[in-house]
Amino acid sequence: MTERKIIITDDEHVEKFTQPICTCKICKGMNTGSTEWESFVPKNNLQRRMKDIVARIEKREEIKRKRASLPSEKEGRFSKKMRK
After folding, report:
1. Is 69 in contact with 63 (CB distance < 8 Å)?
2. Number of structural domains found in the chain
3. Which residues are CB-contacts of 47 (< 8 A; sequence separation ≥ 6)?
4. 20-43 pLDDT, tens per residue?
5. CA distance 35 to 13
């Protein structure tokens, strides 16, 4: 059995995706997928819907990362769930 390593990083230090220099099959596939997605033009309603949903998810996660990095959040304010 192969041992696996899990690395957990702090959300404050999320880096933007950059294409790796590595030329292995996996890295090439990731680069190709990223490039194709950025230039993808939907041709039907299903594709438009899928692209719209992915864009919403990306926007929501970006907002979460920005909120998490605000000083007021780190100063111990409680969420609504914790106040009850």
Report:
1. no
2. 1
3. 40
4. 788 889 888 888 888 898 899 999
5. 24
**CA pair distance 10, 62, nearest whole angstrom:** 14
Could you read off the pLDDT of 7-24 as tens digits, one per residue?
766 666 666 667 778 888
DSSP at 44: S
Interatomic CA distance for residues 77 and 12, integer angstroms: 18
Residue 54 within any structural domain of the chain: yes
Under DSSP, is residue 66 helix (H, G, I), strand (E, B) or coil?
helix
**Token duo for residue 76:** 């111990």
> What residues have CB less than 8 Å from 48, skipping those under 6 apart?
42
Distance of CA 54 to CAs 13, 77, 84, Å?
A: 22, 31, 33
Domain hosting residue 57, numbered range:
42-71
